[in-house]
Design a protein that fits this description.
CATH class: Mainly Beta
CATH superfamily: monomeric porin ompg
Order of helices and strands: HHEEEEEEEEEEEEEEEH
Largest sheet: 14 strands, antiparallel, barrel
Helix content: under 10%
Distance between the termini: 29 Å
Structural class: mainly beta
Oligomer: single chain
Strand order of the largest sheet: 1-2-3-4-6-7-8-9-10-11-12-13-14-15
Number of domains: 1
Length: 329
């Protein structure tokens, strides 16, 4: 069964076709689990609230800011989870903004005593906005310094619907999954042209290579390896790294890039430091650019905050859910 799932993941990767465009990416992809995959909806003991913020390339004019907020709830009586996810991304001097608000659902199947598979779906509203008054076009630049008038596009915003689906397979130490996003190809043209958001494919996974516990205490020390590969249109990206948790601190270091496919050595080296308690997780990461933009981008800053509303005892939590072993950052 597990081999069939792996073959399916490879097949889905092959059939994704080239297109144009690119979604914002979070370095702390597991800290924004619902954005990574709707299969994570409800993968908590009770309730979970997550806030994420990313400041991309702050040294370059025309900033790139991405905000995300999500809330999900476990429904163990139905082997299910529900969630709500909202993201807002603003780019450039014209405040080109993208807003997504989605409802998520996941269901947990027992394959056997060790393995579980968790499919998920995300139905969402897509909104694209632009403040054209803040843009300056070439036709507006004259030798006398007088700006010519610009005819605004017929649409100041674009609204559409979208859909994503995913599947996650895991046991106590290993997890792997995929996500297919923008399956309804929402429109992106302010002039009514046939321009759409391309399908995005994520393949992610990892394993706990070291796990130590102590009697009558929660998990104290964990070393995990994790990866996240993305393809959207003509763009590829991969993240590969390590997470080390020793109560209550967590550290992460990973590499972003595909050196065998791209001409550059990579895009960034990412460092993470965070605090993880039974209910509160706070993380900060910095992307140190190693591409040709090393002297001008300013890297990227990212902050995550997760709060889990856990009113159950540790024993009750273990009875209610089958914990997914991936990190929280």
């Amino acid at each position: 069964m597990v081999k069939r799932i792996i073959y399916l993941l490879i097949l889905l990767f092959i059939i994704i076709t080239d297109s144009f465009g690119q979604d914002p990416t979070f370095s702390q992809f597991y800290a924004n689990a619902l954005y990574l995959s709707p299969s994570f909806a409800g993968a908590t003991s009770e309730y979970r609230l997550a806030l994420n913020y990313r400041d991309q390339w702050p040294a370059i004019p025309g900033v790139y800011h991405t905000y995300s907020i999500s809330f999900d709830k476990a429904m163990p009586s139905f082997n299910s989870g529900f969630g709500v996810l909202a993201t807002y991304d603003v780019a450039g001097s014209g405040n080109l903004s993208t807003t997504n608000i989605g409802l998520l659902y996941s269901y947990d199947f027992n394959i056997n005593k060790e393995w579980h598979i968790r499919p998920g779906v995300n139905f969402k509203f897509y909104y694209l906005g632009l403040d054209i008054a803040k843009l300056i076009f070439n036709s507006q630049l004259t030798g006398s310094g007088v700006s010519a008038t610009v005819t605004p596009p017929p649409f100041s915003n674009v609204a559409d619907v979208d859909f994503a689906t995913s599947a996650l397979v895991y046991n106590d130490r290993i997890w792997a999954g995929f996500t297919l996003d923008h399956l309804l190809a929402p429109g992106t043209s302010f002039y009514g042209e046939n321009a759409t958001v391309p399908v995005k494919f994520n393949l992610y996974g990892g394993m706990q290579v070291l796990k130590k516990t102590r009697l009558r205490q929660k998990m104290q020390e964990v070393l995990s390896v994790a990866m996240n590969f993305q393809k959207q249109g003509k763009f590829y990206q991969s993240d590969l790294g390590l997470y080390y948790y020793i109560n209550p601190l967590i550290f992460g270091l990973w590499y972003r890039g595909i050196p065998l496919i791209t001409k550059q050595a990579g895009d960034a080296i990412i460092g993470l430091v965070g605090i993880k308690t039974s209910q509160l997780h706070i993380g900060y990461s910095y992307d140190f650019t190693i591409s040709n933009l090393i002297s001008s981008s300013g890297g990227a800053h990212e902050i995550s905050l997760i709060y889990e509303f856990n009113q159950l005892s540790l024993g009750q939590q273990r009875k209610r859910i089958r914990a997914i072993p991936c990190p929280e950052f």
